[in-house]
Every structure is written in structure tokens, then in C-alpha cells.
Amino acid sequence: MTVTDFENKLDNFYLGGNTKENKVEVLPPSRNPVVTMDTCEESEKHVILVYSALLAAKRYIEKNERKSNVTMLIVGANQSGIIAAEYAPKMLAYLTGQVNVFIADSSIERLMAAEEVCSDVICWSADEHEQSLVEKTKSACKGGADLILDFIGTPRTIQRAMKILNKGGAFLIGPDALSKVSINLCSLIAQQQSIIGVVETSEAVSLYDSLLHHLVTSSMQSLTLKD
């Protein structure tokens, strides 16, 4: 079953409800030429985490009535980060008109893999000065990021991300954060920023189960046709 076949089968499945107005298709990663039951199950944890993060981003955009284009920075070109970079425009664009996605990582190899789904990559070289990295990232994002999804969660990436986050922006971080980190509350309040913890939600699991259900149904139909 090809990605094109899968997209056709999910034509009427939308994140915002079963209406054409909320056309947000739940699609598999296009970097996989063929989506199978095995590849879907291997990515279950990452896909559900990404769905949870993007659903949290969706709620934040709706609550704050962000009508214009949104800039999203994804920290970490790991599996979760790459999936998020691909899914974000599909799942959020109808809310804002356009989602400009950037992905940052210290690994050239991971960024090269990320370029398959996101052309705007930023190298956070370990040899580069911290302020230089912040300024480079803000420049690439044309001033800063409205939403930041951190899939690494070290004190360094968190503190760096908070310097890049725009006024009124939201920083989303998952359960894999490695340790405690100090946050300047005065700056957070003055900039009207939010920190949102991302955990697995029943809504995200439901979306994943729907994806898996379609794969099972399609596989059974394919076997029936062969017989």
C-alpha cells in the first residue's frame, strides 16, 4: 500500500471533525515509500507523542486566536522531531493560513535526514558561541519562533529556546526532558510566554488508532484481492 493510496483512504478523516471546512488530513510520514503494519507499530510511541504535541499547539493557537502565519521551531532532528516537522503543516495550517517550520539540531547527519521533510534546517554546532546560535536561529525564523517543540529537553536547549521564543509564544516540551532547569519567571511574565508540558493524551491515541485501523483494513482488503 503506497502513501498515495493511504492519503486517498483518509480523504474524509480530519483532525477538526468530519467536515470539509476543517480539512486536516492525518497522513503517514512521506519519507517511507511504503507504509506497513510493522513500520507503523515501530513508530507508535513517537507518532502519539507528536500528535499530542501538535494537538496542544492547535489548542494554543485556537485559544489565542492566532490568525496570521505561525513560525514553529522544532528542537531535535530525532524521530519525533522529523515526524513533527512533516505533520505540523498538514495539521495546523488551516488555523493560521501557513505554518513555517524550522528544525534545529547539533548533528549534521540528523539534519540531512530531516531535509527530506523540512527544507529549513538550522545547525546548532557545539563549537559555536551560545549568543551566536541564538541570533542565527532568530534570524532564520525572521525574528523568532511563535511555537517551539523541544524533543531533546536538556537545560541548554530549553534555555536557548526561551531566548528564541517570541512574545506571546508557547514552548512545548515532552516527558523526555532530562533534568531540572531554571527559568526566569520575570522574563516569562513580561513576554507573556507559556510553557506547556506534553504528555500522551487519549485524543492522540485515538488518532493513532484510526491510522492503524485504516492500515489493518487496507491490508486485509489487499489479501482478499490476492486470494
TrEMBL record:
<dbReference type="GO" id="GO:0016491">
    <property type="term" value="F:oxidoreductase activity"/>
</dbReference>
<dbReference type="InterPro" id="IPR036291">
    <property type="entry name" value="NAD(P)-bd_dom_sf"/>
</dbReference>
<feature type="domain" description="Alcohol dehydrogenase-like C-terminal">
    <location>
        <begin position="92"/>
        <end position="202"/>
    </location>
</feature>
<dbReference type="Pfam" id="PF00107">
    <property type="entry name" value="ADH_zinc_N"/>
</dbReference>
<dbReference type="InterPro" id="IPR050129">
    <property type="entry name" value="Zn_alcohol_dh"/>
</dbReference>
<keyword id="KW-0560">Oxidoreductase</keyword>
<dbReference type="InterPro" id="IPR013149">
    <property type="entry name" value="ADH-like_C"/>
</dbReference>
<protein>
    <recommendedName>
        <fullName>Alcohol dehydrogenase-like C-terminal domain-containing protein</fullName>
    </recommendedName>
</protein>
